[in-house]
Amino acid sequence: MSRLQTVLDRFIEISGDRTGELGESINTGLVWIGGNKVVCIADSRETEHRTPASWRRASRIIGVARQLRKPLLLWNLSFHNGTGQTPNLAAEQAARDGQQDIMQFPFGIVSVIEDAQKNAFSTVELALPDGIVFVDGAETLCGHLTISPRTVGASNAEDVASGISGLLVQIASIPANELVSQRRTRLASITLS
Asked: By C-alpha distance, which of 113, 183, 122 is closest to 148?
């Protein structure tokens, strides 16, 4: 979360999954970036394995974003089980539920992807957001998508903040049903190709 903190004007963490667990592999909270108020789900880098508690925490913050009518910012969020171990059924189901919550989210979604060479990002992570800020030349990741989301490249914190702000402005005028439809179309294009 270190680069994320250099981009933020303010961050208020919201933790827990409402069942007594913290969900420590994901950080969530309210974020201010360049005058924009968004709700953030970020990879904590504390652990590579996503537990069901982490996905419940993500679902909880998505509910907060719906109530506040604010866009989502996904920071290095991967649905991939980075440990190389087979996740248990509860973790797999929680990840699928998280993907579904994000796909049906009625407001804009911007993702920031950094360290793409070190982290495993699947086409799902590239298809779900309405806009992506690629840090340090990771734009080539979208090359295999037939229908790409809006993308911006960035090399420093200022570029990342302005990229997020610019994408939020572009996405803000798109109706909710069209945003969800575009996400479904992008996901369908992955499974068909």
From this structure: 183
**Cβ(175)–Cβ(154) under 8 Å?**
no
Q: What token pair was written down for 73?
A: 């910012």
Q: How many folded domains does the chain comprise?
A: 1
Per-residue tokens: 77: 């969020």
Q: How many C-beta atoms lie closer than 10 Å to residue 4's C-beta?
A: 21
- Running along the chain, 193 residues long, what does each successive block of 10 average in pLDDT? 75 70 74 91 70 80 93 83 58 78 93 70 80 76 65 86 94 94 86 54
Q: In what helix (H) or strand (E) does residue 111 lie, and over which residues does it extend?
A: strand 109-113
Q: For residue 59, what is the domain's CATH number?
A: 3.90.226.10
Phi-psi group of 129: left, alpha or beta (phi > 0 → left; psi -120 to 50 → alpha; rest → beta)? beta
- Domain encompassing residue 162: 2-192
The answer to whether 53 touches 22, Cβ cutoff 8 Å, is yes
Task: Say if CB 71 and CB 65 are below 8 A apart.
Answer: yes
